[in-house]
């Protein structure tokens, strides 16, 4: 039976409720010094604020080596009543100190599988997806290495593979590698940041493959997100791909949290959902926030 693998265990997909399909409770990268998400009280407050807006689940895309704080996720989920899904995987190599990944050479897929089936380190918290990343309009050797390992982990476990697209680019190349070369079924692939490259033709081509398209990172006007996203979502819906769309907040810095005067997780339900409903209707927005993520993250785990 299909289930979403949360930090408190596997749950039926229908229990997720309204889902922030891509966000971060904890995250730290050398590229964002001084903006690390490390505070447990702030994470608790953010989840509480999200819950107060009707939120039911948050999928944390923070991968290996970037401060996931897996052991802190179960108590936060229990205390706030919000389902939390953790990730394994790797980000772009620029997010890691030089030499930090050397020990993973030759065993990366095994690490991903172990974190999906046995748990992340000593925490015992099992990941519910694999997160990897492409580059700007290209896939370098690091991206191909991580995607090959993600594909192996998918074939071993059934786990979905979520992909950071740099500024929303490279969607079709990623599908060529993951689905064409490595045999991952398209419906197990989630492409992130499509909002940052509002090419409606590429969006339709990607959706036609059967993959999921995540519009994540609202309130970033410099990424052409808020004011173009309704048109992009409407175009996908009119082309018959409304069941392929996901929404997320992608909070990656402390200043972006709602508890620090940023938009944060609640913004997705407080502002983005209602604005999107003006373009595509309340029913489709409800399905994008509930039915679509329930399908995207539910797996017949092996």
Automatic annotation (TrEMBL):
PROSITE patterns assigned to the protein according to its UniProt record, in alphabetical order: PHOSPHOTRIESTERASE_2
Superkingdom of origin organism: Bacteria
Keyword list, A-Z: Hydrolase, Metal-binding
InterPro entries named among the record's database cross-references: Metal_Hydrolase, Phosphotriesterase
Stretches assigned to coiled coil: none
Keyword Metal-binding in record: yes
Chain positions with N6-carboxylysine modification: 131
Keyword Metal-binding: yes
Xref: Pfam families: PTE (PF02126)
PANTHER family, sorted: PHOSPHOTRIESTERASE-RELATED, PHOSPHOTRIESTERASE-RELATED PROTEIN
Family statement: Belongs to the metallo-dependent hydrolases superfamily. Phosphotriesterase family.
UniProt-recorded name of the protein: Phosphotriesterase
């Amino acid at each position: 039976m299909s289930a979403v693998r949360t930090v408190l265990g596997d749950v039926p997909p229908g229990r997720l409720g309204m889902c922030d399909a891509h966000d971060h409770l904890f995250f730290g990268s050398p590229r964002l010094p001084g903006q690390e998400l490390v505070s447990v009280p702030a994470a608790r407050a953010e989840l509480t604020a999200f819950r107060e807006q009707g939120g039911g689940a948050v999928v944390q895309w923070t991968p290996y080596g970037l401060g996931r704080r897996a052991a802190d996720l179960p108590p936060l989920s229990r205390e706030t009543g919000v389902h939390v899904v953790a990730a394994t995987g790797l980000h772009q190599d620029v997010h890691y100190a030089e030499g930090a990944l050397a020990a993973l050479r030759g065993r990366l897929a095994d690490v991903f599988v172990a974190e999906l089936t046995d748990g992340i380190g000593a925490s015992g918290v099992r990941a519910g997806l694999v997160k990897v990343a492409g580059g700007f309009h290209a896939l370098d050797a690091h991206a191909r290495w991580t995607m090959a390992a993600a594909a192996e982990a998918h074939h071993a476990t059934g786990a979905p593979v979520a992909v950071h697209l740099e500024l929303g680019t490279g969607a079709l190349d990623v599908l060529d590698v993951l689905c064409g070369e490595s045999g991952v079924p398209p419906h197990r692939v989630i492409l992130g940041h499509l909002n940052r490259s509002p090419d409606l033709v590429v969006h339709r081509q990607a959706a036609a493959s059967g993959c999921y398209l995540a519009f994540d990172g609202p309130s970033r006007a410099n990424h052409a997100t808020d004011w173009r996203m309704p048109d992009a979502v409407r175009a996908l819906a009119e082309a018959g791909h409304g069941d392929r769309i996901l929404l997320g907040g992608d909070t990656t810095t402390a200043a972006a949290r709602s508890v620090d005067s940023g938009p944060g997780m609640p913004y997705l339900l407080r502002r983005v959902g209602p604005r999107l409903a003006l373009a595509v209707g309340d029913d489709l927005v409800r399905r994008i926030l509930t039915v679509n993520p329930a399908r995207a993250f539910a797996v017949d785990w092996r």
